[in-house]
Design a protein that fits this description.
The chain is an alpha/beta fold. The chain contains nine helices and ten strands. It has one domain: TIM Barrel (Alpha-Beta Barrel). The mean pLDDT is 93.
């Protein structure tokens, strides 16, 4: 079985680029069939209202539950104070099995992580090269599986990707997906050092070709059992762990501006020495 763990779907409401305009699935599905992909994890295109965007994805997933899984997209800032409600709707009503967050919208918050922990949901968080946060996520929320796509940088920042591999090796709850990784030696290094079970196949469809992305996994020449984990085993295991709490979780909303830019200790003015 092959599961593509990273694909966008539905209409965005912006016109910045394909990522917030439209993510049509027609060509993707044809390419996925040709590549032998059995099922796909879907989440929304960028949107100003992820409640509406998640509803769009839910309709697509509901139309072919044999083909699709759904993840709920949330915005760290605009959805502050209502992440639990959005995720509850997505998990209980839509049957979604994960959360998607993107650094382009804002930095991930404790609110999102607390909700993920309450429902045992995997979180796909695109850090856009900001690798240092991975250490904080791994140690503060060790029971939450965090999938950091693209080895940490879709922009092909090899320094960030190289640094991320160390986190992948050290932290049992940190994973990556194979989508959009152009420096194959780094992908090979991640598989060798962290183990294939820490890698998940993903295409970043519908804009990247799933067959091309799948070929990179095949080119790793993994053992049969290892390749099975990358192609489906790990993502299925993470999604099977999802639970609905018996009591509705009480989540404290993240404070506004809880994640200011920069290090508070940088450029600090130290007092002059008393003579």
């Amino acid at each position: 079985m092959i599961v593509d763990g990273h694909c966008h779907a539905g209409k965005g409401d912006g016109l910045t680029g394909p990522w917030d305009t439209d993510a049509p699935l027609e060509a993707y599905l044809r390419r996925a069939r040709e590549a032998g992909i059995d099922r796909t994890v879907l989440f929304a295109a960028f949107h100003s209202d992820y409640g509406e965007a998640n509803r769009q994805v839910a309709r697509i997933v509901g139309s072919r539950p044999d083909l699709f899984y759904g993840f709920a997209f949330v915005h760290p800032d605009r959805d502050r104070g209502r992440v639990a409600a959005i995720v509850q709707t997505a998990v209980v009503r839509y049957g979604f099995r994960g959360i998607k967050v993107h650094r382009h919208d804002g930095r991930i918050t404790r609110e999102i992580c607390e909700v993920a922990r309450a429902y045992a949901l995997p979180v796909i968080y695109d850090v856009m090269g900001e690798i240092s946060v991975v250490e904080l996520l791994a140690t503060e929320y060790p029971s939450v599986p965090f999938i950091i796509p693209h080895l940490g940088s879709f922009a092909d920042d090899w320094r960030a990707q190289l640094a991320f591999i160390d986190h992948l090796v050290r932290h049992p709850n940190i994973y990556t997906d194979t989508s959009g990784i152009r420096r194959f030696d780094l992908l090979e290094s991640a598989a060798r050092r962290a183990g294939a079970r820490k890698l998940l196949f993903g295409s970043d469809g519908p804009w990247l070709h799933p067959g091309v992305e799948l070929a990179k996994v095949r080119a790793l020449h993994l053992g049969v059992a290892e390749e099975r984990e990358v192609l489906a085993g790990t993502i299925l295991r993470l999604m099977r762990a999802v639970r609905i709490p018996s009591v509705e979780p009480v989540i404290t909303p993240s404070a506004p501006d809880a994640s200011p830019e920069g290090d508070p200790w940088v450029n600090e003015e130290w007092p002059t020495r008393v003579r």
